Structures are given as structure tokens and as C-alpha cells.
Backbone:
């Protein structure tokens, strides 16, 4: 898996990702302390609203960012977003009102909603080999999991010698270093097609919902959100109020979730060799509702600790290979908008399950929260089985009727070339009827998925 780091461009981008993640983790800790300094006992409510604002920014902004990404050079866009995020983080130590936190969180997360899909859509162009790309996805998952484990530790060590406001400075340095690393590489020139802004805005969602495997991915993402929300929202309450544990015990439970995720991420490159991602992803989803129901029926210390580790493993089995599906389902020129669509649509589930997990736990108890979120995870898993057929070949034989239409010619054609032009519109052309087979991707020439 580490052999992919021999690619200099990817190695530097991966280092940029790590620096950005560590900086973000430090800011998460510092933001909690800042909220307590300003709001006191209401800090939890402030952070809850900030988390909801983050999800709203992710869902609402990323499609617009995906549409804009096609008009702008990727390297310049990524560097600019890093610099802007660094500047916003440096403003947080000067915040004195709760509403200022909300404004800065929205602006900051809006930049992240533009940065992350653009960054993710760039990696397939750097690593065209699918095995290498799979390794890169596993490394990315490991980076996210290690950040969740190491950032609190680094923050704790830093807070022994500095005030928490300085953690924001550390984050800003991380973003600036990330920007310098991106600036140090030459990224492949993204293939672009002349399309209007509104078409770019909706194109990613159109491709997404027209592709069966991606409809299945959305259902699986909802299952992950149902199980992950239980962990993220209710771990503190379960450990502190339910088990009488301390802050260190809370950290161990989060570490168990991260360890399970990392174990699967390390194993996935070999698991996926010669196998369809569907089997691995559906298998990961199938255990999520069962584990949540076990938590409802047997909520003991060691049971929940084991459940958390296995929930992390199941979530990693689903989300780590997601990039493979997006890569297989898009042309290079459509990847920014498709990755942005996945980013927005998958976070819609979190926008629902975050508040639901907190409300169920506070109003009806943890057993009810486990049971209901387990039911939602089961719904997501069953929906994926229906929406994503077991037979999902890349190459599909299909037929085209004779058609006359207009679209940017640089989009290319997988079937017959234009045989006549009968219009002053230079882009209007006609294709003859044909039947053929090739890797099927939703595009201008293939707007509808073939029936089996």
C-alpha cells in the first residue's frame, strides 16, 4: 500500500492532506474551549449548532463549488482555499460573541466544502491505475482515523505549555504548509467542456442519480451516518453518565472506533483485489444495524467498546472504496461535479442523524436511540441491495437509436462519429444507430442506464 507514495505528486498532496487534517483537529479542540469560555454551561448547545452549520455548509455549498471548479485552475483554487482558511482560523481567537463563531464556522466550512471534493477529484487523475488509487483511498482513510486519535493528544500536550488560543495559530500554520505543498507540484490539466454554470451545477447530481451503483452508495452512506451519529453524538453521555467513566475513558471509546476503521482500511487493498467493491461494502453495511441492536439489548462497558470498534470497521468498509465507484462512474471532466455531489448528498444523512441521535438519547434513553438508528441503518442497507444490482459490470452492451443533438464536441463520443450537420449550430450533429459494448458511464451520449 505504501508503494503509492513513490509518486512524488501524490506524496506531497498526501502530506498536505495530513497537515490540513491535523490543523482542523486542533481547531476542533480549541473551538470547544472557546465556546466554553464564551457560553459557559451552554457550550454544548453552541457546539451542536456549529456542527449543524457545518453540515448545512457541506450540503449547500459543495455543488456550487463543484460547478466553479471546472472554470478555475485546480492548483490555484486549492492553494487559495488553504490561505483563506488559514486567515479565518486566525480570526477565531478574537471572537467575543457566539454569533461570530457561527459566522466564521459557516465561512470556514464553506471553503472546506469547496476544497475537499476538488482535492478528491484530483487524485484519480494523478493515479490512473486502479490498484494505486485503491491504496491511496486506504491511506486517506488512515489519515482521517489517525487525525481523530492524534489531534486530541497533540492538543493536550500543547495545552500544557500554551493557551488554547494558540491552537488556532497551529491550525493556520498547517493550512499554509498544506498550500505550499500543493503549490510545489504540477497537477494534471483537468479536461474541461464548455457548459453553462447551471448545467455544471446539476450535472454531478444528474450523473449520480442516473447511475445504479451510486444510488446504492447514497443508501450505504445513510447507513454509515445512522451508526456514526450514535458514536459521535452519544459516546460522551454513554461513558460519563451511563458507565461513570472519565474523559480518558471517552477517548478510549473513540479510539476503538478509529482502530476498527484503520484495521479495515489497511486490509482493503488486498480484499478488493479481484473482487467487486459491492460485496465488501454491502458486507460492511450489513453488520451496522446488528451491532446497534446489540448495543440496545446489552449495553455494558465491554460490549459497547467492541460494538464501537466493529462499527468503525463497517463504516470504513463502506466509505473507503467509495472513490472507486465515483471514478468508474465519471469521465475526468465530470469528476469535480460528481465528487461534489457525493460530498453534499452523503452529508445530508448526517444532517438528519446528528440531531436525531441527540434527541432520541436525551428524550427516550440510549436503548431507544440504538434501536431506532439501527433500524435506519437497516433501511439504508436494504435500499442499497435494491438500488445497486449484484450484476454490475463495467462494460455493458447497449444500443443507440439514430439521434441528432447538440453538445460540446470536445466531450467526445463512444459511438459513431457525426455523419451530417444540418444546422448553423456548429455543435449540432447526427449519429447513426449502433449497438456496441464499452465501459458504460452516464454522459451526453448515454443519459439513461441500460436495462438488464
Residues:
Amino acid at each position: 500500500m505504501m508503494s503509492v507514495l513513490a509518486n512524488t505528486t501524490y506524496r506531497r498532496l498526501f502530506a498536505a492532506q495530513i497537515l490540513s487534517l491535523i490543523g482542523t483537529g486542533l481547531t476542533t479542540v480549541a473551538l470547544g474551549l472557546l465556546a466554553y469560555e464564551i457560553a459557559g454551561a451552554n457550550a454544548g448547545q453552541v457546539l451542536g449548532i456549529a456542527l449543524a452549520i457545518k453540515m448545512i455548509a457541506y450540503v449547500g455549498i459543495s455543488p456550487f463549488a463543484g460547478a466553479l471548479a471546472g472554470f478555475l485552475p485546480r492548483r490555484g483554487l486549492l492553494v487559495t482555499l488553504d490561505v483563506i482558511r488559514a486567515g479565518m482560523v486566525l480570526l477565531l481567537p478574537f471572537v467575543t460573541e457566539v454569533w461570530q463563531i457561527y459566522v466564521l464556522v459557516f465561512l470556514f466550512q464553506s471553503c472546506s466544502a469547496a476544497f475537499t471534493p476538488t482535492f478528491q477529484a484530483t487524485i484519480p487523475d494523478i493515479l490512473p491505475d486502479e490498484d494505486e488509487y485503491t491504496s491511496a483511498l486506504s491511506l486517506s482513510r488512515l489519515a482521517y482515523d489517525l487525525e481523530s486519535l492524534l489531534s486530541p493528544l497533540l492538543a493536550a500536550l500543547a495545552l500544557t505549555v500554551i493557551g488554547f488560543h494558540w491552537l488556532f495559530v497551529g491550525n493556520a500554520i498547517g493550512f499554509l504548509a498544506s498550500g505550499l505543498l500543493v503549490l510545489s507540484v504540477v497537477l494534471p490539466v483537468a479536461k474541461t467542456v464548455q457548459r453553462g454554470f447551471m448545467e455544471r451545477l446539476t450535472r454531478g447530481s444528474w450523473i449520480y442519480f442516473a447511475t445504479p451503483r451510486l444510488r446504492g452508495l447514497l443508501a450505504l452512506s445513510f447507513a454509515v451516518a445512522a451508526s456514526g451519529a450514535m458514536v459521535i453524538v452519544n459516546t460522551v453521555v454513554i461513558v460519563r453518565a451511563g458507565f461513570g467513566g472519565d474523559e480518558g475513558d471517552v477517548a478510549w471509546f473513540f479510539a476503538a472506533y478509529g482502530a476498527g476503521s484503520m484495521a479495515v482500511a489497511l486490509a482493503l487493498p488486498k480484499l478488493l483485489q479481484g473482487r467487486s467493491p459491492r460485496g465488501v461494502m454491502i458486507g460492511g453495511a450489513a453488520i451496522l444495524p446488528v451491532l446497534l441492536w446489540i448495543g440496545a439489548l446489552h449495553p455494558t462497558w465491554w460490549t459497547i467498546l467492541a460494538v464501537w470498534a466493529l462499527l468503525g470497521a463497517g463504516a470504513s468498509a463502506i466509505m473507503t472504496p467509495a472513490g472507486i465507484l465515483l471514478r468508474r462512474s465519471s469521465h475526468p471532466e465530470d469528476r469535480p461535479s460528481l465528487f461534489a455531489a457525493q460530498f453534499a448528498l452523503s452529508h445530508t444523512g448526517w444532517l438528519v442523524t446528528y440531531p436525531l441521535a441527540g434527541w432520541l438519547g436525551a428524550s427516550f434513553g440510549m436503548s431507544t436511540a440504538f434501536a431506532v438508528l439501527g433500524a435506519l441503518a437497516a433501511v439504508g442497507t436494504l435500499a442499497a441491495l435494491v438500488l445497486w444490482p449484484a450484476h454490475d459490470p463495467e462494460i455493458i452492451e447497449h444500443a443507440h437509436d439514430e439521434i441528432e443533438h447538440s453538445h460540446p464536441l470536445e466531450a467526445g463520443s463512444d459511438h459513431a462519429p457525426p455523419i451530417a450537420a444540418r444546422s448553423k449550430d456548429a455543435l449540432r450533429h447526427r449519429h447513426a444507430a449502433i449497438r456496441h459494448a464499452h465501459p458504460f458511464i452516464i454522459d451526453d451520449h448515454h443519459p439513461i442506464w441500460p436495462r438488464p
Observations:
- The radius of gyration is 23 Å.
